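Weekly sync, protein design subgroup
Attendees: M.S., D.O., the rotation student, P.L. (late)

Item 1: inverse folding check
M.S. brought a backbone from last month's batch and wanted to see whether the design step gives back something sensible before we order anything. D.O. pointed out we never logged the input encoding, so this time it goes straight into the notes. C-alpha cells as presented (593 positions):
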C-alpha cells in the first residue's frame, strides 16, 4: 500500500499555513529529497494520507540525521532522505519543531524511541544517527505561537519533551501508547531498520561538506522558499468567449539560488482527483464539473468553461471548479497551489410556446369558447412554469379562474410547465369592432410575460377593421394593432393607474387609448411618454379619451403648451416634433421631466 506524504508549515505568526506534497518512492532509490529552507521557530508537521483514508495523520515513525546545520528526514528505506530542512540548526535559540498529528487528533513532537537525551532532535550532533523517532511526549498546544514571538508561560511549560525526561516518569516516558500512534510493527520509516541507518550514514557523510556550505550561505542571506501562486478565475454563464488563458509561473517566487527559468509544473489534478504527472514539453487536461483546465509543463494553461453545464444556474447562483498543481525547480524544491474557478449564474429568459395565444370567434354566443395549450420553458433549474396571473398591480392570482371583460379564463396545469387554457364567452359585444379580451401571464421567475388575446367579431359586421383591446393591467402587456387605419383602440378598464412607459410594455399600431372607469374607481391615471406615441415609428398621432377625474402624466419631456383644431374643439393638441398627442380637454395633463 502506498502513502501520500505532505508537510504542513506553520510560521506561528498568524500567517496562513502552507502544505506541500513530498515525493515518495517506497520501492526503490529514485526519490529526490524535498529541500526546504527551515524558518526559525516554525512548526513543521509531517503528514501521511493512506490510500484508504482522506484524513492526514502523522507518520508513526521516521528517521532523522543532522548533517551540518541541516536536518534530514526519512519516511522510507531509501538511500536519499525524503526531506531536507536546510539551516534547521542555524539558530539554536529558535529551533523549528518537527511534529505530527496522532489518531486522537492531538499534535505531538517527534522524539527518540530510545530514552536518550542526546538523541533529541535539538541535541543531535552532526553525523550522528540516523535516529529512529516516533510521536510522543505531552500533547502540544493546538494553537501554535512561534518561538520568535512572545510565548505564554503555560504554553512554554508543555512545549519541550525534554521537560518530561527530567520529570522521571519512567521507562521510555515520552512515547505514546501503541493504540494511539501504532508503534508496534513500525510504519513509515520503520521498515528501514538498522541497515537503513548504516547505508544512510555512509551516504550522507560524503555530502556533509556541501550541505553545510549551502545551508550556511542560505542562512546568512535570509533565504527564500519556492512559492507557487494561486489563481482565481471568474466566469458568467453565457459569456463569450468561454476561455481564459493564464501563466502559472508568472507570479511564482523562486527559491534562493533559482530563477523562473528553473521552474516547471510537474503535476496537476482536479481538487478531488489524483495527481497526473506532466513530463517535459507535455500537458494534461483536467476535467472539472463546469469546464476543463489544460495545464502544460511550462505553466501556460487554459480553462474552458462548458456553457452547456451551467445553463441550469439561476441569477445569484455561484458554483466553483478547483484544481491543484505542483511547481518544481528540478532540485527537489516543490510548492503546491490552486486554480479556483468561479461561475456566476444568470437569468435565462423563459419561452412561451406557442408565442401567440388567442382566437377570433365569429358570431360568438354566450357559452361558446375556445381551448388552447401552453408550454412555459426555462433553462434555469426549477423555473419552468407560470407565476401569478396579473389582473392589476394590486390583484395577482396564481393560475386558476379569471374574469375578463367578455369572458372567463380557466388555467389548468397538466404537467410541469404545461397548461390548458379555456376561455368561455359570457358577453356578446354590440359595438362595430372586433373586441379583444386580454389576459397577461407571467413566468415563474417573474421575468417574462405573455398576453393572451381572445377576440369576438360580430357576424353582422365581420368586414370591420376596427379593433378594441380590453385589459385590466398594462404590466407585461403586448398589443399589436390591426393595421395602418386609425381604428385600433386600447381600452384600460378599472385599475386606478396604468403605465405604458415600462420596459415590459409593447404597443404597436395603437391609435387611441380610452380610460374606462369601473364602478369602484372614479379616477384613473395614465403614464405616457414619447415612445408610447411613436410605437416604433408606427404612430404619429395618439388620442386619449377620459373623464374629468382622469389624469395623464407625461414623462421625459418639458411642459408643452397645447394647441387646438377647430374641427375637433374638444381636444387639446400637444406636439413633439412630428408626433402629436390629442387629449380630451376633460383630462388633465402633467409633464414630468
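Designed sequence read out in the meeting:
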Amino acid at each position: 500500500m502506498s502513502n501520500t506524504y505532505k508537510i504542513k508549515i506553520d510560521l506561528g505568526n498568524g500567517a496562513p499555513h502552507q502544505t506541500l506534497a513530498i515525493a515518495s518512492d517506497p520501492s526503490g532509490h529514485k526519490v529526490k529529497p524535498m529541500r526546504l529552507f527551515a524558518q526559525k521557530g516554525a512548526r513543521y508537521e509531517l503528514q501521511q494520507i493512506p490510500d484508504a483514508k482522506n484524513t492526514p495523520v502523522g507518520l508513526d515513525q521516521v528517521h532523522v540525521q543532522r548533517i551540518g546545520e541541516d536536518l534530514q528526514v526519512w519516511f522510507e528505506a531509501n538511500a536519499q532522505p525524503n526531506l531536507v530542512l536546510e539551516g534547521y540548526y542555524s539558530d539554536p535559540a529558535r529551533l523549528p519543531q518537527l511534529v505530527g498529528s496522532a489518531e486522537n487528533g492531538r499534535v505531538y513532537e517527534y522524539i527518540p524511541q530510545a530514552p536518550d537525551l542526546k538523541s533529541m532532535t535539538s541535541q543531535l550532533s552532526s553525523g550522528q544517527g540516523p535516529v529512529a523517532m516516533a510521536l510522543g511526549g505531552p500533547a502540544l498546544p493546538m494553537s501554535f505561537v512561534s518561538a520568535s514571538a512572545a510565548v505564554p508561560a503555560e504554553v512554554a511549560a508543555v512545549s519541550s519533551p525534554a521537560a518530561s525526561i527530567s520529570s522521571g516518569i519512567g521507562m521510555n516516558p515520552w512515547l505514546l501508547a501503541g493504540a494511539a500512534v501504532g508503534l508496534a510493527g513500525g510504519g513509515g520509516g520503520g521498515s528501514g531498520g538498522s541497515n537503513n541507518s548504516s547505508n544512510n550514514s555512509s551516504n550522507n557523510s560524503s555530502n556533509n561538506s556541501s550541505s553545510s556550505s549551502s545551508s550556511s550561505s542560505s542562512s546568512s542571506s535570509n533565504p527564500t522558499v519556492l512559492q507557487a501562486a494561486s489563481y482565481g478565475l471568474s466566469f458568467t454563464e453565457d459569456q463569450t468567449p468561454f476561455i481564459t488563458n493564464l501563466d502559472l509561473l508568472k507570479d511564482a517566487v523562486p527559491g534562493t539560488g533559482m530563477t523562473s527559468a528553473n521552474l516547471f509544473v510537474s503535476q496537476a489534478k482536479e481538487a478531488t482527483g489524483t495527481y497526473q504527472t506532466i513530463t517535459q514539453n507535455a500537458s494534461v487536461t483536467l476535467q472539472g464539473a463546469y469546464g476543463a483546465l489544460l495545464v502544460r509543463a511550462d505553466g501556460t494553461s487554459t480553462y474552458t468553461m462548458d456553457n452547456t453545464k451551467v445553463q441550469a444556474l439561476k441569477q445569484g447562483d455561484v458554483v466553483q471548479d478547483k484544481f491543484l498543481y505542483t511547481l518544481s525547480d528540478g532540485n527537489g524544491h516543490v510548492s503546491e497551489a490552486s486554480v479556483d474557478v468561479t461561475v456566476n449564474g444568470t437569468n435565462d429568459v423563459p419561452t412561451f410556446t406557442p408565442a401567440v395565444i388567442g382566437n377570433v370567434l365569429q358570431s360568438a354566443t354566450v357559452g361558446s369558447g375556445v381551448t388552447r395549450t401552453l408550454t412555459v420553458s426555462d433553462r434555469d433549474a426549477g423555473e419552468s412554469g407560470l407565476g401569478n396571473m396579473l389582473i392589476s398591480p394590486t390583484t395577482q392570482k396564481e393560475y386558476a379562474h379569471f374574469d375578463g371583460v367578455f369572458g372567463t379564463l380557466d388555467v389548468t396545469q397538466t404537467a410541469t410547465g404545461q397548461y390548458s387554457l379555456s376561455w368561455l364567452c359570457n358577453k356578446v359585444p354590440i359595438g362595430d369592432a372586433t373586441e379583444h379580451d386580454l389576459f397577461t401571464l407571467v413566468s415563474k421567475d417573474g421575468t417574462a410575460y405573455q398576453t393572451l388575446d381572445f377576440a369576438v367579431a360580430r357576424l353582422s359586421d365581420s368586414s370591420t377593421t376596427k379593433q378594441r383591446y380590453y385589459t385590466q393591467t398594462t404590466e407585461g402587456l403586448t398589443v399589436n394593432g390591426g393595421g395602418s387605419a386609425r381604428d385600433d383602440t386600447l381600452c384600460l378598464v378599472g385599475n386606478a393607474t396604468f403605465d405604458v412607459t415600462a420596459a415590459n410594455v409593447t404597443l404597436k399600431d395603437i391609435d387611441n387609448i380610452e380610460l374606462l372607469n369601473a364602478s369602484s374607481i372614479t379616477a384613473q391615471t395614465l403614464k405616457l411618454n414619447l415612445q408610447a406615441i411613436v410605437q416604433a415609428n408606427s404612430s404619429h398621432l395618439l388620442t386619449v379619451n377620459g373623464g374629468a377625474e382622469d389624469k395623464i402624466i407625461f414623462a421625459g419631456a418639458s411642459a408643452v403648451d397645447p394647441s387646438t383644431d377647430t374641427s375637433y374643439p374638444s381636444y387639446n393638441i400637444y406636439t413633439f416634433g412630428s408626433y402629436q398627442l390629442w387629449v380630451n380637454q376633460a383630462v388633465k395633463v402633467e409633464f414630468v421631466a
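Discussion: The chain has six helices and 42 strands. Helices lie at 153-156, 161-166, 178-181, 193-205, 208-220, 530-534.
Action: P.L. to compare against the previous round before Friday.
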